[in-house]
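Page 37, top half.
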Amino acid sequence: QVQLVESGGGLVQPGGSLRLSCAASGAVSSIYTMGWYRQAPGKQRELVATITSRSRTNYVDSVKGRFTISRDNRKQTVYLQMNALKPEDTAVYYCWRAGDIWGQGTQVTVSS
């Protein structure tokens, strides 16, 4: 059974940075596309970024130039480096793997 465990969320001031990590265990995940979604209070869950097994990336327009997704297949870990954070980035961030596998989520709060 595949498990995804996120870490790295927290409270940060506008303009600050955070790096989220998602460690996969229980099965080989390095061949699958993985990504990050987020859900703000009262809003639908939205795609933030994805990365294929060959590290081809895709981003939602609102984070382009600020967020970077990457992966370390040896460690079966996916990262989301978030820079120049804005209050509207506040949400629960979920790690996702193709095959409808989800992590438990990690809270990111951007506030002064």
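Page 37, bottom half:
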Amino acid sequence: QVQFVESGGGLVQTGGSLRLSCVAPATSFSIMSVGWYRQAPGKRRELVVSISSGGGTKSAVAVNGRFAISRDNAKKTVYLQMNSLKPEDTAVYYCNTEPATLHWGQGTQVTVST
């Protein structure tokens, strides 16, 4: 069971940037595909971006060109750089394997004000 610990959320104005971090101290981290997910109030959790063990990335259409995922296997950490933030990006952001397991961390709240 992999434990994910997310951090870096906060309140930002429209057009601003945030960088989220996700630490997953698992021995198998380097071979894991990892995704960032988000859940807005009243909506289902959705996959936003993911990164494979080889570094290949995929992004949802809604964030393509604005969000970038990266990983540091030595630190067992995955990052989410979010630029040009919009109010509709407001959500709790989680990381998990991709596809996701049933074990979710606490997430980190991102709020984008108008």
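Margin note: The two ends are 39 Å apart (CA to CA).
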